[in-house]
Structures are given as C-alpha cells and as structure tokens.
Specification:
The protein is of the alpha/beta class. It contains 10 helices and 9 strands. The chain has an 8-stranded mixed barrel with strand order 1-2-4-5-6-7-8-9, surrounded by 4 helices. The protein starts with 17 loop residues before the first helix and ends with a helix.
Length: 271
C-alpha cells in the first residue's frame, strides 16, 4: 500500500508513475460518486483557554489500491483532471453535513480553491449551499491560500467581499509557506492569518525565527487580524506562541485529523 500523504514534501502527486497518475485522474470522478472521498477534522484550540473551539475540514481519498491519498495530492490530481471545483463542492457538502450536530458555539473552517474564486457565480452559490445547511455564516471560516496569486487578485477580493458581507470569516491560509505578498493584507477582507508550520517550527530555538514571528504578530495586531498557528507539535512551541499573542492553534500536540464521529464526541465533550 502507498500512503501518499506522508511522503516528503518534495514528492508530489506529479512524481507518481505516469500510468498511475492517469489512472487516478480517470478514476477520481467515479470515486466522488462511490463516497471514497472522506472528510477528517483537525481540532482548533484557543491559546488562552486550551478549549477546542472548532475544526478545519480536510479531505482524504481512500483509494482501493493506493490507500490513503491526502488533500495535497488529491487536489493536485483533481487539477490535472479538471475536477477541482466538483471535488471542493463535494468536500464542503460532506463537512457541513457531518458538522451539523456540533454545539452551536463550535466553528468550522473550510478551504476554498483559486479555481472556485475565479467562477463568477461562486460567492452567491456558496451562500446558497450554506443556507441549505445547519450552519450559519458566522460559524464558518473560509480559508484561502496564497495560490490566488495565480488568478485575478482584485476579482478574488470582490468575491471574498461578498462572502465577508454575508457573515463569513475569511482566513489567509499557509502564510509564509511561499512568497508572502503583503498586498493580500491590504486588498482582501481578511479576519485571520494562519501561519504555516514553517513559520513556527524554529521559534523556540532560533532567535531570528522568533523575531520574524513577533513582526508578523505586530503587523496582524495593527490590522486587527487574529492569528492561528499551524503545526504545533510540542509544548515548547505552544508556550512561545501563547506568549507572543497567537489567538488559536492546531497541530498534533492536541490532535491529528480525526474522523467525523470522533470529532463529534470531542465537540460535545467541550460544550
């Protein structure tokens, strides 16, 4: 069995043998109909209280022969097969359904792709999807990545503005993982900045890394943006982000991504 999501970052879905990649692309549409694409939830924790306040929905493909295919590789395959939008809609619908029984004060974070933002009707269509669910917009955070550099930034800002006006919180995900374009902070209607694990993994041992974190925190405070730190895997890292003022965190120190039933149990236990 090949466990794709745990391969090194240098090994991408594009590095798979060509015949395997073609087979995955062809099978993906069928997989959507066979319910092989599942949703896991990674809990998000308040730095101040230590309480789980919500979770991010993450996709996993349980392929019958390859095993578990993680979100990074799944979306890379979907992009080649021109199935990003259908895949994302499938994940959003499942996540909303599975989180419907969470306590009313629990938040759900959903990832939005650049391809979706490029659709002229996306914002209104997404609002209508949420209206048919058990969630209100004020309980949802929509996460976007720096990949929107590849699209029309001003168009994306307009679509996100429509969603923000409807009550959704907007988060800039994986901040620092690639080229940090600070125009995002100026043009987009953001509420949250999510720091990529690469921005926090050295802060407990490297003074330079810590000073970079402090500069980002100061900037976010000036712009009234909350900070979520990703990839927190040790108490040492948690102590530092707490001291520096990061509002939320997620990572293996609290929990790996978990199945919907486990997340529901956790959500009810913290209500």
């Amino acid at each position: 069995m090949v466990d794709i999501p745990y391969l090194p970052r240098s090994m991408r879905a594009g590095d798979l043998p060509e015949a395997v990649a073609r087979s995955l692309e062809a099978y993906l549409l069928t997989a959507l109909g066979k319910d092989e694409i599942q949703v896991l939830f990674q809990p998000q924790v308040s730095t101040a209280t230590g309480q789980v306040t919500g979770a991010e929905a993450l996709a996993r493909w349980h392929h019958p022969s390859l095993g578990k295919v993680g979100a990074r590789d799944l979306f890379a395959i979907a992009e080649k097969a021109s199935l990003v939008a259908p895949l994302s809609r499938h994940i959003v619908a499942k996540a909303l359904d599975q989180a419907a029984e969470w306590p009313q004060d629990m938040r759900l974070s959903l990832n939005i792709t650049p391809e979706e933002l490029a659709e002229g009707i996306f914002a209104q269509s997404f609002i209508e999807v949420v209206e048919r669910s058990q969630f209100t917009p004020d309980r949802l955070t929509l996460e976007i990545t720096e990949d929107i550099l590849l699209t029309d930034l001003e168009f994306a800002a307009t679509a996100l503005g429509t969603l923000h006006d409807a009550g959704f919180r907007i988060a800039l995900d994986d901040f620092g993982a690639g080229f940090c374009n600070f125009r995002y902070l100026k043009l987009l209607p953001l509420d949250v900045v999510k720091l990529d694990r690469s921005m926090v993994e050295g802060i407990a041992s490297d003074t330079r890394d810590l000073e970079v974190l402090r500069a980002i925190v100061a900037l976010c405070r000036a712009l009234d943006l909350d900070i979520v730190a990703e990839g927190i895997e040790s108490q040492e890292l948690l102590d530092v982000i707490a001291a520096e003022g990061c509002a939320m965190w997620q990572g293996f120190l609290r929990s790996a991504p978990i199945a919907p039933d486990a997340m529901l149990k956790l959500a009810r236990s913290t209500a």
